[in-house]
């Protein structure tokens, strides 16, 4: 009987990926992980062997050809793909495809190309004859050739390296013609300008702080065996330095390193430090690379040339032989969740990879998700803390301003009196200020400007979202209401759904400090490439005094001249009807307040809010992570949100509203009938963006200790997207 192989088949870049069985032609030696070419309908497409000799009945098409003699996916990668497929309810073929560079999965080549790079350069090596000639003193060799041969024997390879040692490429070619050396070529890789080796690496030899030393001891002791840590340290406490030193140790032991960063353009400094320390051993994998560049980097990892992989979430799938250390920086970032199939969360997947490959996983953050913190305080992760900044800078004292009082005092502007005074003082002293505006979520809640009352769903206790049609909608249960005209809490009539734009704040700032030089940084500005860097430079050089911006200013703006950070509206995200609203608010506030007081001038923070008593705002102003986490976890426990329950978000869409409503009602009621005690079923409700691209969208939410068990009993049809462990329910 002939042998069979199960193959994850990729029908083009956007086509479906599915697993099919094929027969193995006689004489073809196949192993799981091999890239093959197979017939698929009338076409030949690429696929990866995922298993051998699965039982099958009927006749099978044979595999056409092997694309590369070595398996491209290592055993731990195939195991990880299986874990993803099971955990996130996605096809195994989708998970396998995510592990290959798109250039490879997209077409059926018969041979795997080498890394192309930008250009090629000559490399040389000594032969045994060359070594003998060097040892025996070959009289026919000139001085330049002898120097070249000696340099080769010491490991010089390129023309530049030979020249440094007194030899030359020309002499090496002459040696090659006489069989004393060999000549080859290698691709020269382009390192993107922003990560070039400019980062000063003088801290490399500085003694570790006591906190760093303790963390390193704990991490290094587990290398080669596997473990998982949360490294919780305020910004500038030396986390990156811990990553770098642990990586050095992992490499010394022959283990590969994976470093995940959330958004590579905004974390260029971290990336540059890895490049500065590990040079050519670093491979960069991120979405800004072209398909060709991505393939080149992937190939360097596969070939063992690069063993430090730095990139966004898909860097987890790098083909390292022994991923011994996996670091996830800023583990709280929502971008670690992939929002298309396979919808994996990179943090959980990193932990799974550590388990499968005996790797040590280090999750780092100043403001970890409470889910992660909970795991670290209950033993699932080991907690390492860096409580202080490396230098003796303190966190800036922060004042909370109650916007309800401002309004009562007749101030209708975007800047409170306290913030105006602080801004004037800062500018007159020649110092700098950051004014931060929470853009997300504005204008979605209906709020009483007199008392701060927010219209909420009585059943779900989450804010109603205001819709363009003028109604209020609960995105949890689907309940609708009309906005009140009189506040049920204070009887006031100034009920608005309001948002503040950067433009309005900019105008108010110009009025408050006429003559001060001001720059604006929001998403629109950042889209123009390089603007982030240019504005940063303007602030750094002191040419600008005030920067007004959205989320962008919270990241990477390390400016010693900034002595004031003002948060214009702290509560817009807080009011979003989402289980992570408080967490996101806390994180953003801590992050942006941390931009103040990094220099000699010291610093202060001012937070404007309609909810001055909210625990997320109070804890952020006090820079108190632990009290925030306690309050937040208590709330999550009360409602059964993660980590006390799991969530699954089911979404579907259709051109017609009645089609999508009927479909959603059928699924929700079937789920309810089968739910038992595994999960509660919420909805159907309109999705937060209820209509998108001409289609109506509805959602059903499962929440409980085992929603996956319920999905096993009631698998949704292909018309539904299934998002297990979503990071947002919006
Ligand atoms: P984090 O990643 O927590 O923000 P970093 O590792 O970037 O912290 O460290 C903050 C600053 O302190 C950096 O400029 C870094 O070079 C410096 N630094 C880190 N560790 C040490 C050390 N042991 N001795 C001296 N300087 C250090
Ligand atoms: Zn509701």
Description:
There is one protein chain. The chain is α/β, with parallel strands linked by helices and 730 residues long. It contains 23 helices and 29 strands. A 7-stranded parallel beta sheet has the order 10-11-9-12-13-8-14, with helices on both faces. A hairpin with a 6-residue loop joins strand 19 and strand 20. The longest helix has 18 residues. The mean pLDDT is 85. It binds adenosine-5'-diphosphate and zinc ion (ZN). The site of adenosine-5'-diphosphate has 14 residues, from helix 9.
Give the secondary structure arrangement, pairings included:
Layout lengths: L3 E7 L6 E7 L11 E6 L2 E10 L10 E4 L8 H13 L4 H7 L3 H4 L13 E8 L1 H9 L6 H11 L5 H6 L4 H9 L3 E8 L21 H12 L5 E7 L5 H14 L3 E5 L7 H11 L3 E4 L5 H12 L5 E4 L11 E6 L17 H12 L2 E6 L4 H8 L4 E5 L11 E5 H6 L8 H12 L3 E6 L9 E2 L16 E2 L5 E2 L6 E2 L13 E2 L5 H11 L5 E4 L1 H5 L3 H10 L5 E4 L12 E8 L11 H13 L10 E6 L5 H7 L3 H15 L6 E9 L2 H18 L5 E13 L2 E10 L2 H7 L6 E5 L6
Parallel strand pairs: 8-13, 8-14, 9-11, 9-12, 10-11, 12-13, 15-25, 16-23, 16-24, 22-23, 24-25
Antiparallel strand pairs: 1-2, 1-4, 3-4, 3-5, 6-7, 17-21, 18-19, 19-20, 26-28, 26-29, 27-28
The site of zinc ion has 7 residues, from loops.
Any descriptors?
5 domains; alpha/beta; binds zinc ion; 730 residues; binds adenosine-5'-diphosphate; Rossmann fold; GIY-YIG endonuclease; single chain; six-stranded parallel sheet
